[in-house]
Amino acid sequence: MQAKRFCCLILCLTAILSTARADEKRPNILYIMSDDHAAHAIGAYQSRLAVLNPTPTLDRLASEGILLKNVFCTNSICTPSRATLMTGQYSHVNGVTTLNGAIGPEQQHLAKLIKSAGYETAMIGKWHLKKEPAAFDFYTVLPGQGSYFNPVFRVRGPLPWPKNEFRTGGYDSKHSSDVITDLSLKWLKNRKQKEKPFFLMHHFKAPHDNFENAERYDWLYQDVVIPEPDSLWHRKQHGPLDQALYGTSIGPRNQRRNMGHHMFVDPLLSSEQYTREAYQRYLKKYLRCVRGVDDNIQRLVEHLKQTGELDNTIIIYTADQGFMLGEHDYIDKRWMYEESLRMPFIVRYPKWIKANSKNENIINNVDFAPTLLEMAGVEKPEFMQGRSFLPVLKGEEAPADWPEATYYRYWMHMTHHDNPAHYGIRTKNYKLIFFYGLPLDAPGALKTPTTPHWELYDLRKDPHEMQNVIADPAYQDVLEKLKGQLKKLKAQTGDTDERYPELQALGNAS
Questions:
Q1: Cα–Cα distance for residue pair 327/468, rounded to 1 Å
Q2: What is the pLDDT of residues 160-198, one digit of tens each?
Q3: Reduced to 3 states, what is the DSSP secondary structure of residue 66?
Q4: What is the pTM of this model?
């Protein structure tokens, strides 16, 4: 009788331990990143574009998880942003300050550390870091920007990188968003280490310019007038005081490069007609690419649902930076202005995250790698400069010492879109930017300097950055305080002006 009771006890303990192990099953991590998808082009962020219902899938993920409102880029351009993701370091530390940079396997820390924790890892889609993504178990990546239709991919193979390639295609042209999703679904279905959780980085090319959508979206928004930002027409006192305005434009303001050129707008139209036509064509093409991204995310969600993995998979959606969609008559990114600086960030994982949550803590993309590592049960290495915001995702109060400001720096002076090199600080209430206008040693930056200037915006009264109050006497105390905070933040990140005598001289003179 005692032996029977003992066996029953053993069976009960075994069942309890098995249940505990099942409950402790580590989550899969699906990290989805698009290229240039601005937060204000996602319905859940409730911008002027929300009435168009541009992202029903992402909106649903946000309603089932958490939407972060104040996530910011530290260098709003593709290659540096992706390097920060892989290293957990600012551009001046990881060495990738411009589009000319690269990250080799030895610096692919995120992939290496998550793999060492027992995850099967894959990188599929836009890589844009030039060197082989060899730290991943599996990769299939676009060369550089890649093509929107029938794209070529680089894979691991018998020849040295980057010579192993294949082209996708068919009777009808295949769109990159569809193909990248096909590849991710194939890997998920056929992966070799299914006893392990997966870490999949699924990176869309879209909606990067030149905004080529799949044919099925050609008539989407055809008869719709896309809402315009007021600042497209009324710039007020945005930008430098008493200087020419920089940056490529929607309308004809920038004769060298504007969206009318890209959209083949009739140059004989009046300035107003030209601007309006360029804006409508631009936004429709952009939002059609966005819908392609959204629909393909739905395909990934459906697969996880069908395989029973949906609620055991952390789904993250973000972009490599923000994007200007006509605000202040700007196109592209690079600026420290809000629409370019802010990154979308949505996470769904019911086991940790309460549905329909929102958070407004200041976070930047240096924090992404530490957060992903903590999700996988990996301790952040000392060389990573960010910190995990997983407690914030779980609904906990941010630690008392959580940063109240974020640092930004754009290095690629005047290249491609006429943006002067600049750095700055963004707090909850203010933004201070120093356009130092020097190429310094940034690879690919244009050599001709621009006139240095400062810009200050009161985000409480002026969230759309319409009034540069740098010269307003009422803000001089605020200005001096922010300059002190900026200097301290630069020292904390290791990006001090002392490394560049000409920059230090400018800073001391201003």
A1: 15
A2: 999 999 999 777 899 999 999 999 999 999 998 999 999
A3: strand
A4: 0.94
